[in-house]
């Protein structure tokens, strides 16, 4: 492991400690309207003001094993995968990145940044919307 990776891991640990200090009781937002507002705020501006039940799914140890963890964690924090799950529910994936593209546009990434993100998603097994959930989000959450 390079020095750079070690440093990233240390930073991640620090971030988790900070987060735990900020949310000692982890007050989870339950009101549906407030949840929706928080999700939209994170998607558009990236500002995290309240704790969502979804946040606790994130597995730092597991995510940090991925060499794209910085970008993938950012997408998780900004609710990209959450929104993709919402959009896919009740639909059959048409095996394109159509929905992901819509969400990244809503997130106001530049075209260049979007292309970079899509490359990272593909590299991690996300060649279409459903594969992003099955192959990429799954590398960040759970055991
Ligand atoms: Zn698919």
Description:
Helix 2 links the parallel strand 1 (28-29) and strand 2. The protein has a two-stranded parallel sheet with strand order 1-2. The protein starts with a helix and ends in a 7-residue tail after the last helix. By secondary structure, the protein is mainly alpha-helical. 61% of the residues lie in helices and 3% in strands. The model has no long low-confidence stretch (mean pLDDT 89). The structure holds zinc ion (ZN). Zinc ion binds at residues 93, 95, 128-131.
Give average pLDDT, whole number.
89
**Gap between N and C termini:** 23 Å
Residue share in helix? 55-70%
Cross-sheet strand order for the largest sheet: 1-2
Largest β-sheet summary: 2 strands, parallel
Identify the overall geometry. globular
Strand content: under 5%
- Helix tally equals 8
The low-confidence runs, each spanning 5 or more residues with pLDDT under 50, are none
**Bound chemical compounds:** zinc ion
Determine Rg (CA atoms, Å): 15 Å
Q: Structural class of the secondary structure composition?
A: mainly alpha
Counting DSSP E segments of at least 2 residues, the number of strands comes to 2
SSE succession: HEHEHHHHHH
Descriptors:
143 residues; two-stranded parallel sheet; 3% strand; binds zinc ion
């Amino acid at each position: 492991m390079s020095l750079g990776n070690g440093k990233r891991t240390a930073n991640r640990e620090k971030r988790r400690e900070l987060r735990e200090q900020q949310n000692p009781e982890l007050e989870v937002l339950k009101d549906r309207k407030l949840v929706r507002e928080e999700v939209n705020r994170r998607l558009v501006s990236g500002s995290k003001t309240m704790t969502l039940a979804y946040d606790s799914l994130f597995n730092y140890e597991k995510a940090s094993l991925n060499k794209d963890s910085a970008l993938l964690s950012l997408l998780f924090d900004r609710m990209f995968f959450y929104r993709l799950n919402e959009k896919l529910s009740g639909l059959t994936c048409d095996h394109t990145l159509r929905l992901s593209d819509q969400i990244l546009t809503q997130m106001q990434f530049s075209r260049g940044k979007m292309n970079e993100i899509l490359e990272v998603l593909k590299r991690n097994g996300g060649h279409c919307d459903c594969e992003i959930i099955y192959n990429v989000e799954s590398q960040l959450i759970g055991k």
